[in-house]
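To whoever picks this up:

The parser on our side crashed when reading a file containing two proteins. I've narrowed it down to the boundary between the first structure block and the second sequence. Both blocks are reproduced below exactly, byte for byte. First block:
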Amino acid sequence: MPKGLDLVAFAKLAEKHTLFEDHKATWTKEELTRLYPLDIAATHALTKGLQLYGQNRRSLFTFIQASGVRLRKGALAFGLPEVFDHLNSEFYSFLHGAFNPNRRQWEMIWSAMEKVEVDFAKDRRTYLDIVKTIGLLQLVGSRGATIDEKFISAYLGAIYGEVDLAAKLKALSDRKILLFVKHRGSYKLQEGTDLDLDSELLKASKRVEDIGDVVLKLAPYFRHKYVAAKEVTYRKGSPRIFEYRLSHAPIDEKPKGEVDGIINLVFNSRSKLEQLKKESLKTEEAIVFGYFKNTEVIVETLLDIERTEQVISQNEDDKVAVKELRTIRQHHVNLLDHYIHDALYSSEAVQWVHRGKHHTEVKDARSFNRLLSVAIDSAYPSAPTFRNELINRESVSPSAATARKELFNHICDDWDKTDLGFVGTEFPPERAIYTTLLRENGIHRAGKEGLDLFAPSAKSTFTPLWEACEQFLLDSRHGRKDITELMERLAERPFKLKYGLVELWVPLFLFIKRGDYALYREGAFVPQLNGTILYEMTRQPRDFQIKAFMIDGVRLKLFNKYKAFLGKDEVKHLTNGDLLDVTRPFLSFYRSLNAYTQSTQKLSPEAKALRSAIEHATDPEKTFFEDLPNALHLSLEEVSKSDEQLGHFIGFLSTALDHLQQATPRLVDRLDAFIGEEVLATGERFPDTQAAIKGQLHGIREHQLFDHLKPLFKRALAPLDQCEAWVSSIAEGTIGKPLSKFSDLDEELMKERLLGMYKELVNLAEVHGVESDPQGAPVVRMQITTSSKGTRTETIQYPARKKAQVDKLVKELKAHLSADGPVDRAALAQAA
């Protein structure tokens, strides 16, 4: 080995300039000597070249052991230029063939060498050595290699004694053979382009001096979107998610949906830490502020990206230049990534603030994540601990929704059974929900009357949640409230429950407190809860409203008066069950009224108002404490003045109810009177009217009646001993309706028809009562009224032997009649 050749220096040089990714930092002199005549850089390059192109036939060791290895004249070692020559010579056919995976890079080196051949006559070998060294390292070296003037001068100077390499590098750059990449501080071979990249970027820097909206420009490069606060998630069971938000000034927004907190990164070089601390005190939300102190550097990097993009857009047709410019742009993007992501946990770059305090303890990702948990605990101190991944999430899976539905059925049907009726080792998903929520929090436990559902135990973390729900129930005394309002409250501070838990908790709470409020669905009162209704609350919560009972002393007194009126025991506290216990008899009373009573207007104003109040009752509390008193022209204030007034009110109520019950009997009485006074003209009443009609119609032969008279005839003579049944029978025979289905118009229609139909029956009774020859002509009854002679009624009958004479005379009369009907009838009447 020649004197003066320091192989260790080559190893250090390779390490310093990061020539190869797998370069070992601790090469010993003995190891390096064994590699001679190769230096360490040439060794790496040759090894990789042989691996790429040697087809497993040649190796570094066979190369070293070969006797044909000769150094170039004046060279102290077999350097990178000679490695290039060896590979180019040994694998010439493959390198120029279609299967060379790096053919484009080799062609770029060959093209650069051709340019040197043309442009440089003096010191051509040195120029070629530079091109071969840079080209080979560009091909097999690391992407982060720094091939600068210092390396070229040190390396080629040591092996070949070449000098003045800085000037030669400049000359190669001027000829567009080499390109110095500033952001990497490294030379590379330049593909064919006449564009002076440095000059163009310099011009662009003068055109693009302002980035505009920093946050808007920075947002596309910020790759963090969400991060979980791990500690509090593990501790309380609810997944707590923070969203990164970039802004110029501190924000104060309410986290919504899956987002529980905000990491607000503030980019404003004019902002100060103290100002940010003051702003952070104004919000109670889970917001952690990060103030970037290196905003100016970030802005400058964004400007570099913008300028590079501008040069790219202006030279899109120069593919070689565009490719290099894109590499430059990516470098700036990587640099920006370092400034905004790698610097997140650096106190020199970012200052973290929460609730007015500068958290200097944030030094890494772990301490930062701990700060997020602190922010969650601060914003949501009343959030319960609930470890159930099925339910404790913002949106539950279909299988979890099914499990929740099954649990609702168990709650409604088996609340008084051990483990809600789950038996043995059976452990479906709904049982897991029951165990983690109801059993572990003491909600389902034994009471004085056995197993039941209660408020959470005193030690349960669900107690604040229960108290908030009770307050909501208390607030609903003054008017109905949508259960969506309660759900929205629980999804905000100080709870911020996941919506999957909200949809389980609210129906559960309402079932436990079912006796303390009235439930409405789309305005209609829901008398009883079941599993289906609880499930529907999770599907269509906007359809449901609740209203707690506002029961003071007066209302309780009045309510107990209602109970006494119905023959039921008094109560000390009003519940939904008590209210339903009183509601049912009134509703049953209304349903028991026939159609006539439900529709007639022939009632007292109080009875009509009472009937309407019961008919349209959708809110039991309003019905009993407002509508019924108002129907009787009283108010709750008036009723509350004294016990005497309460007594009067119940008396009025009883009178109005009696008036409703007597609506049909009064109708019967009116029609019975009409029959006696108008139809019979005797003034008699049932049963005398019934007897009188039977006496007048007994001679009628039913088979000779017209069809429209047969029903009335049959029903008038029906053997009924009750006035209402007999009058109703006549009504049905007259207009085809029983009294129970009458309307007020039907009453008048019956009176009108009954008068005419009964007169027809009476006339027929007289006709049928006249003795007639079985072989004779039919009997005729004729009634004629004139102003001179008054009314004459004659029953005409003639013997059968005279029938021929009658027929002949009828024929002769018809022959003399005119075509004018009224004239003919008038003439015949006067002749009679």
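<<boundary where parser fails>>
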Amino acid sequence: MSKNKIMALVTAAFMFASNTIVFAKPIQNKNIKAENTYVESSLKKDSKVENYVTILEAKDKAKGEEVNLKGTITSRIGNSFFLQDDTAGIYVYMGAKNLDELKLGNVVTFTGILDEYYGVKQIKNINNLKVVSENNNLPKAKVLKAEEVSNDKFLGDLITVENITITTVGKGKKGYNVIATDGTYNVNLRIDKWVNPYIDSKEFKVGTKINVTAPLTKHTDFNGETKYQLMISSLNNIKLSNNQDAQKVEVKKIPEIQGRAHRSPLENQNVSGVEGIVTTVSSKDKYQRGFYIQSEVPDNDPATSEGIFVETKDTKKVKVGDKVKVDGTVKELIHDYSPKTSTGLTETAIKATDFEVESSDNKLPEPININLEGNLLKNIDNDGLKDFEPEDDAIDYYESLEGMLVNVKDPLIVGADERYGELAVLASNGKNSKDSLTPNNGIKASEGDFNPEIITIDDVIIPISNKGGFIDKNMKVKVGDKLDGDVKGIMSYGFGKYKVLNSEKLPNIIPGNTKREVTTIEEKKDKLTIASYNIENFNNSDKNKVNGIARDIIENLKCPDIIGLVEVQDNSGDLDDGTTDASENFKSLIKAIKDQSKVEYDFVEIAPNNNEDGGKPGGNIRQGYLYRIHRVCLSNNKKGDAVTPVKVSANDNSRPFNENGLSINPGRIDPMNEAFKHSRKPLVCEFMFNGEKVVVIANHLGSKRGDQYLFGSIQPPQMKSEVSRIKQAKVINDFIKEIKEVNPKSNIVVLGDMNDFEFSDTIKTLEGNEMTDMINTLPVNERFTYVHNGNSQVLDHILVSNNLKDQAKFDIVNINSQFTKGYGRLSDHDPILVQLDLEANKNQDNNQNNEQNNEQSKEGWKSIDGHWYYLNSDGTFKTGWEFLNGDWYYFSNTGVMRTNWFNDGFNWYYLREGAMKNGWQFIDNNWYYLNSDGTLKTGWVYSCNKWYFLNSNGAMEKGWQSINGRWYYLGDNGVMATGWNFVSGSWYYLSRNGDMLINGIIDGWTIQGNGIASLL
């Protein structure tokens, strides 16, 4: 750093070291040379300064210009002073020289340089200073109203503000601020640390009405906020107002301050001598710093609280059991991330200007047992906060206890959030909520009842969490656990809910019986299993999570055929570097599954445009699919992109869409629709399973951000975010309608994180008349995939088209939502899955059609002597190939429907239960592939981006196979291998065509005649 830069910083440090215009004290270190920053060593009374300009003219000059000034000293603070003439006033910086001759009322002349700091004009580098006369009257101050003070026009001028009342007095030996108000507008008084003699803050009393005369300046803090200030240099600047008697502050009791309402009747008023016993001290939380006091003798009105929060940084001066008297201003504090926009309630408090301890070791008041019964168990509020009814509305009941010592008896844990050190509990082991309890003793949220009896215990006083996790790494909590003893604490409010701030260490946790579940759905060769799993901002940087999610899929979900994954980030995770591709994340999960189970998946997804789909900036979360390659494959078609909408179009009666299925596969539904702006777009994919097509739509609808708090200032709360989700649901349902118009029997599954409840209008819109939400097939108390603030609730859904609902089995696998990380929690959502019997569904459709045909005419299916026939309208039987009800059938010359394997004289077909199959089929412990026309495939087949080999009987081969004189390795699942492969203890190299290399050298390895590789 250059010498000039160093000197500039030194100068700036002297000039602006306090939180206003700074007045430097004399330099003590003689090694520091302050160049051109202070007056010469003595007054030059014989110096002549001519060509004066007025102060107003000086202010109009450019920064750095030299000016000659003459004026009266109106205030001195430290070494520097304010100067005023008939036109304006200005601050004059004298640097380190202490000149006793610079006194109020002296008229001086000098030469200086115009400077500016944060918009305030001042004079520095003073030379040729001369005292012209002494003890002159000060210029007449301009009398302003409080609302007129914030005006650059008056900066540096001596001004007077009358009849303002002190509301806040700061403290500190390095200067402090005093705030006074006229009832509407505040005026800031600044007492700088260089004021001599220094003015102790005890000289200012809250509630005192004053008149103030002092120079005006302004200060801009490090946050860029500017405040206008009157610079107090002496108590002579302040006079008591003639209206002082009217400002006498009446001593109030805590219940009078709290009142019978959510806001104090004395809000923004000054109170003095408020007495109470200190019940707890909050010294560690940045939102609630201070202490709580409670009346020694209650007023016997259950609607008015006896406790209150005292906001102060001086928490070391008090301890629990002290009896104190508090002076200050009544405030309604907002504890929230965004106080200016919060719709939460407030916490009534006294913003202390002073307090004194009268006695210590006093007995604390007895805590009140929290006990909600009757209407309080269902009513948060039933009158829009019109009436204060603690006996009827839970929101009023909790408010009547605000600030008081309370007790939670026999707490049952129904939720935990270790990020914030919160436990959600029910008192008395949940006995008053038994009808709403889940099988694991959580509590189910239902329409119209979000369980106001849930009590949040927060660690504001005694922290248990830090940096997103429990401080005690051995601590773990799950729904259904209990606390081994009552919890005592203070009833408080913050972040949208009433909370008990425990004032004693939490009792030990008694573990309950809740276990991480394993699905009851078993893998079936002829049944398709589809899962939905929100894996919460998944990326491959956390290997423990990658392996854990893989383990969930294998052990808890039993390897579903298709998995709709939600919240998969791009390859760079949270890093906002423009990356959108997520292939590495999908591949890492697929590898982890294979390493642990040998089950092989492939994946499909569409990358979003950068930062257009919501979620963490740079994360680019999206939906995607894993699918088991030997059981399921994609219908052939090209993959879509972020902005191209998938289309539905009819082609012929044998296929529901165009000849290749959907127009693109996978594709995004109407991605440019305004409903999906800054939100995830639905991802639709058409899969083939045992020759049956299934259209799956994975979703992550808009979040619930923007919804108002359940215990907020607006009752009933408005769920504003639902509007966008309803619009999104309608777009998806319209797409489903298009498919159903083309083929009413299409198999459709809609899954994902819908961010809404099973009884919401969002889900009703999504269902329409075409779909069924499988959540509703479970008992009500088992319907939950997420726990929020103690409420077990549904956010994740699987809907199936109505033609599938009777052949579908559904399960929720609760492995995350009820647990903290210590129990293996990997996401905030639980996975869900459905198993579909597509064959039974088709047979059911055929039977229904047959019954209709039998009722209307003789035409249709007939069962005779254990064989099936199809009767024409003229009474004859169908023979040969016939396309009936969406499937091909073959009838013999006598009309008998053929089943199982069948050769028509040219090709083999598989007619399971009569209907011709195509695609992969597992028959008698072998895999076969049937072309789209039903004919049996032999030889090489390319399916789902993999090569397989089928022998002359059509059965899929595995392992080492000699084909046309060359060796190939087809693996345990029949997939042709390429590249380096380690098989049975040896390395082999297979070309990109799959044939084994022999008698050669590659990558520094010698390949022998048997294909085994060895190092040179």
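After patching the parser it read the second block fine. The first helix runs from residue 3 to 15. Residues 529-840 form a domain with the Deoxyribonuclease I; Chain A fold (CATH 3.60.10.10).
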